[in-house]
Specification:
The structure holds 2 protein chains of 2 kinds. By secondary structure, chain A is α+β, with helices and mostly antiparallel strands. The radius of gyration of chain A is 36 Å and the shape is elongated. Chain A starts with a helix and ends with a strand. Helix content of chain A is 34%, strand content 33%. In chain A, the strands form 4 sheets. In chain A, strands 5, 6, 9, 10, 14, 15, 16, 17 and 18 form a 9-stranded mixed beta sheet that branches. A 6-stranded antiparallel beta sheet of chain A has the order 2-3-21-22-1-23, with helices on one face. In chain B, helix 3 packs antiparallel against helix 4. Chain B is mainly α. Chain B is 76% helix and 0% strand. The chains are: A alpha+beta, B mainly alpha. Chains A and B meet through helix 3, helix 9, strand 8, strand 9 and strand 12 of A and helix 1, helix 4, helix 6, helix 7 and helix 8 of B.
């Protein structure tokens, strides 16, 4: 799409003739591979822009963090670049280009193929039989090698074998169009939110938002007609010894050269959460309609929603100086004690642990605790035990674990996977599979019968030399006694 | 077995592994030095020895990765330390496999040896070799498929770029008519064709790696695409290799422009694997691929 031609059409678009021509010109341009190359270049550049600026950050946060190019960031919506008008416009042009190319290539699939009148021979053989006999023998040999006739009307007979590469090329482009349609469905209709589900406190899915299209007629999606119940939250740990390894590069080199040793140590709190599950139940009208122990990588799908386990939240029940009034505190947070220092809690550990020696055991739940301003190792506070901080006794009296869930409605996923499957299959078959086109001619113009063969291949598994060797072997089997001539 | 014995055994195995890894890095380093000597002297013997050293390094490296797999009891590419090792080994193995076709040509090995050595040194000096349990998001059968295919495509793209760069370097030298670096004028185009064939081989792998990553993200994070920097750079890499393949279909772009796209694709691949971590750290952009950082 040269700049001159753009100028020419931009100028002529003002007259009526130009207005008629413009759509045709645009269609023609959008169906060319050259345009695809320009659009793909712009797409790649736009993707790069999206990785340079922190997506989703507010303008104020960006400015506060010392962000630069404020004018451009604001003008081009660079902090929400992938939903900005500029990017969406580019995505529309890309989609149009791809869709039009797919349509045009589809039409081309049904156009009768034409072959050149002359082919440059890949290999030539001298034959011992007469022309007619040789011609029949060559065709029979190729047919026995599963070749089918593509054109027999010219001087050269054209035969082919293998996967229909033109269809495959079209199929993976069409598959990408289907994927883009899936992405469009996601963009228009999908929404997701989070919820914290506590044990013994059923909740309905009550979104505060909805998809882009649904937002035209409703502010938020309707609540679900089922309740979610968290029956149990389970965590499994494994004991992970810590490697004592220096940060200094020279010391690391010394270990590698055997000048220094290496060791592992087991600390008081060396448990690593290797897995966690939430036993969920969906209840509607008093009956359980679904039940699943969900974990990361294994969500629950129910009535259009996919419910994921994102993490967990732990609430500690603390007794201070024996006071029966318990204080609620969150794990991984700070708590200001009455008349004492602020203390920081770590993550509460509860469940079963696999020890270094392979033994599994259920352990007493505990949480690490330290004075916020101290730098020493934290203390371990077990369930029912106490620690004394600035003469204040803190007892871990209990805890609850809640599941942090996200739920998502996304009608585009299925479409995307269907398109993706087509893309993967077609790409693999087209790129790896073998396709051969062979054109041959038996000639006796110099009173010597010779066979000229031209071979074209597609796909990485296609082996031109192997095919020629096989052909020679077949012809020999048929007693045609081919004598290879030097390549031209 | 008593706890102390278990810890001592683990330390001993890790120590042995580290020493082997340093040995592998040394082989790659010597191979790189000899490859560079080959580049400047154009002597065949230096190239041949460099190639042999690469072979020896690769054999030990395979043993090292096998040892790591037994030590960890899982696929050996969870942490960046492991990924760098796997990256280097797969690139060298792919190069050695592909280069069997070329007799007396060692030039492309320079880039491969440099990358392998660089990756090994980065792992050894900047990353911890500690064996970490597999975190819950990684406990998925997509983990092996996604990572293996991505690394396999990376390895293929590295060799393709090495061929492309060698071709661009040698082409003007061959105009004089003499053989250069083991090349003859009649074999140059076939050699260059290897770069395209490698991209044709790697492109479906990268496509599958991106799709499998999206499928995995969909079940683990609740959305198949988050415009995370790593995801976006993998899409950029894919787009650039798409550009390369399309430019091969246009006669006027088949030459230098296509070669430029191939080399750009290789740079984008490096950005996807490593550069994006640096970029995210430099610009303070959060990444969901924290375990790969």
């Amino acid at each position: 799409m040269g700049l001159e031609s753009v100028k020419k059409y931009a100028c002529s678009a003002w007259n009526s003739e130009g207005r008629k021509e413009l759509p045709k010109w645009a269609y023609r341009k959008l169906s060319s591979i050259r345009t695809s190359i320009y659009v793909l270049c712009l797409m790649a550049l736009s993707f790069m822009v999206g990785t340079v600026f922190p997506q989703g950050e507010s303008y104020e946060e960006y400015e506060k963090a010392g962000g630069k190019f404020l004018f451009f960031v604001s003008a081009f919506d660079l902090l929400e670049f992938f939903s900005s008008p500029l990017f969406l416009l580019l995505a529309v042009v890309f989609s149009l280009n791809l869709a039009i190319c797919v349509l045009e290539r589809y039409k081309a699939l049904f156009v009768r193929r034409t072959f050149p009148k002359l082919f440059k021979p890949t290999k030539s053989f001298l034959l011992t039989h007469d022309r007619g006999h040789s011609h029949e023998d060559v065709r029979a040999a190729l047919k026995s090698m599963k070749f089918r006739v593509a054109d027999k009307d010219g001087d050269w007979v054209v035969m082919e074998k293998g996967l229909p590469y033109k269809w495959l090329t079209w199929a993976y482009h069409a598959g990408i169009v289907v994927c883009l349609f899936g992405v469009l469905l996601t963009f228009l209709f999908a929404f997701e939110e989070m919820m914290t589900l506590k044990p013994g406190e059923p909740q309905t899915i009550a979104p505060e938002s909805t998809g882009l299209v649904q937002s035209i007629w409703q502010d938020k999606a309707a609540p679900s007609d089922f309740h979610l119940v968290l029956d149990k939250f389970t965590t499994e740990y494994t004991e992970a010894p810590e490697l004592v390894y220096p940060d200094d590069k020279k010391a690391r080199a010394a270990i590698g050269l055997g000048w220094q040793g290496l060791s592992h140590e087991l600390k008081d709190d060396s448990l690593f959460a290797k897995d966690w599950w939430a036993s969920l139940r969906a209840v509607a009208g008093g009956a359980t309609i679904a039940e699943k122990k969900i974990e990361i990588n294994d969500p629950l799908e129910l009535e259009g929603y996919t419910i994921y386990l994102l993490g967990f939240e732990q609430e500690l029940k603390l007794m201070v100086d024996g006071n029966p009034l318990l204080i609620d505190a969150k794990a991984d947070s700070e708590v200001m004690l009455p008349n004492a220092a602020t203390i920081s809690f770590g993550t509460l550990r509860s469940g079963t642990a696999t020890r270094v020696d392979g033994k599994e055991e259920e352990f007493t739940p505990y949480v690490t605790v330290r004075k916020t301003d101290s730098t020493g190792d934290p203390a371990i506070l077990r369930l029912g035990d106490s620690v004394i901080v600035d003469n204040v006794t803190v007892t871990l009296a209990g805890f609850t674990e809640s599941a942090i869930l996200s739920y998502r409605y996304d009608p585009g996923v299925g479409v995307l996977w269907a398109g993706g499957l087509v893309v993967l299959l077609a790409v693999a078959l087209r790129f790896y599979g073998a396709y051969y086109l062979i054109a041959y001619k038996v000639d006796d113009s110099d009173d010597i019968v010779h066979l000229s063969v031209h071979v074209t291949t597609k796909g990485l598994l296609a082996d031109k030399q192997k095919l020629l060797n096989r052909l020679e072997a077949r012809l020999t089997e048929n007693d045609i006694k081919p004598v290879p001539l030097p390549s031209i | 077995m008593p706890l102390d014995s278990i810890l001592s055994r683990d330390s001993f195995l890790l120590m042995a592994e580290l020493r082997l890894f340093w040995l592998v890095a040394a082989f790659y380093a010597f191979s790189l030095i000899l490859h560079l000597f080959h580049v400047f002297s154009r002597g065949e013997s230096a190239g041949k020895t460099a190639n042999t050293l690469l072979w020896v390094g690769a054999v030990i490296h395979v043993g090292l990765i096998t040892l790591r797999t037994f030590e960890t009891g899982r696929a050996p590419f969870q942490t960046l330390y492991e990924s760098l090792s796997f990256f280097a080994c797969s690139a060298v193995l792919t190069y050695l496999f592909v280069s069997r076709r070329w007799k007396g040509i060692y030039l492309p090995g320079t880039l491969v040896a440099a990358l392998a050595f660089g990756a090994c040194m980065y792992a050894l000096l900047s990353r911890s070799p500690a064996i970490e349990p597999l975190s819950p998001p990684l406990q998925s059968w997509w983990f092996e498929w996604h990572v293996v295919l991505a690394f396999f495509s990376y390895a293929v793209f590295i060799v393709s770029a090495a061929v492309e760069i060698s071709y661009l370097a040698v082409k003007p030298l061959l105009k004089s008519g003499d053989g250069q670096y083991g090349f003859r004028a009649d074999m140059l185009e076939d050699f260059h064709g290897t770069a395209l064939r490698l991209v044709l081989f790697g492109f479906p792998l990268l496509t599958f790696a991106i799709f499998s990553g999206a499928a995995w993200a969909n079940v683990a994070w609740g959305r198949y695409w988050s415009w995370d920097p790593k995801e976006t750079w993998s899409l950029i890499t894919w787009t650039v290799f798409t550009l390369y393949l399309h430019s091969k279909a246009i006669p006027s772009m088949r030459g230098t422009p296509a070669s430029v796209f191939n080399i750009l694709g290789f740079i984008c691949m490096l950005m996807t694997f490593l550069g994006v971590n640096w970029l995210a750290k430099l610009l303070g952009i959060p990444s969901m691929h924290v375990y790969a950082v």
